[in-house]
Every structure is written in structure tokens, then in C-alpha cells.
């Protein structure tokens, strides 16, 4: 019994570490100051969703060993959305509905980003515009974010699977990529 509780606590810690890395990266000011991401609750949500998508795609490559960890990372996302909505003053009556909408948005964006990454740069830029992470009238911002996404995907693919399963996730630095695209 105690062993199961310790294992669950360790799993939650690992998932918390991964989700913490996702949120930390999503809040990097370069995204908002240099790549034109709207610095609004919706813009920050979209950046968390983007990084959550990238992290879960990488964890998925670890197969069944990562299944439970992926689920607990998603639970951390849902709990964060609930907490964030409450901090923004959303009433108890509508929090559940808005959290479900946030989760549905994650799955919709994941589907679109996965398809766009398979199709190529233009499709990825269009998906970013569709989901509000780039503006059609500022194509360089969409290109810069697409470059970052591909670099992040490559960096995550190069990370050791055991390190990921231990809760250690590292994203590339966005500052240099943002500078390169300016």
C-alpha cells in the first residue's frame, strides 16, 4: 500500500516537473515581445497548449512506459486551467464548462499541429494563424514561430527517453531563434 502511494507521488512529481517546464517555456517573454504572440490569457493558453503538445508527442515515442505519465501531465494541465480560470474570477458554475472547452481546444490544436508538421512549413504557419499564434499580416512572426516549433521538436526528439520519464524536459532557447528571424 505504501509502495503504491510512493509510486503515485513520484509520478505526480515527475508530471509536475514536466508541466512546470512547459509553463516556464511558454511564458518566456521572447514569444510575446519578439514573435508577436498576444500577451493575453488566450495567448498564454495557446503557448502552453503548443508546448504541451510538443512534450506529449515526445513522451508518446516512449511507448507504454510513458502512458501513465502522459495522463498525469494532462491532469496537471486541466488542474492549471481550473486554477487559472478561478484566479481570473470565473464563477464555480461555469468553471467546469470552460475547463472542458480548454481541454477540447488542446485536442483540436494537437490534431492540427500534428497534421501541419507532417505537411510542411506553409501548413504549420497556416495552423498558427488559424489558432491565433501568428497574424496573416505579419508572416515573419509565423515563420519565426514555425522555426522555433521545428527546433523544439528536434531538440525534444534528441532527449534521452529515461531522462524524460524521470521528469526532465528541456526546450531550446527561443531568444536566438527569435533574433535569427528578425
Short description:
By secondary structure, this protein is mainly α. It is built from nine helices and no strands.
Low-pLDDT windows of residues: none
Content of β-strand: under 5%
Kindly state the number of beta strands: 0
Major β-sheet, in short?
A: none
> Termini distance?
56 Å
- Give the count of structural domains: 1
How helix-rich are the residues, as a percent range? Answer: over 70%
Rg measurement, Å: 17 Å
- What's the tally of helices? 9
Integer average pLDDT: 90
Morphology call: globular
Which structural category fits the helices and strands?
Answer: mainly alpha
The arrangement of helices and strands along the chain is: HHHHHHHHH
Supply database-style keywords.
0% strand; mainly alpha; 182 residues
Topology summary:
Layout: H1 2-26, H2 29-33, H3 41-60, H4 67-87, H5 92-119, H6 121-130, H7 139-157, H8 161-165, H9 174-181
Helix pairs in contact: 1-3, 1-4, 3-4, 3-5, 4-5, 5-6, 6-7, 7-9
Give structural notes:
This protein is mostly helical. The chain has one domain. It has nine helices and no strands.
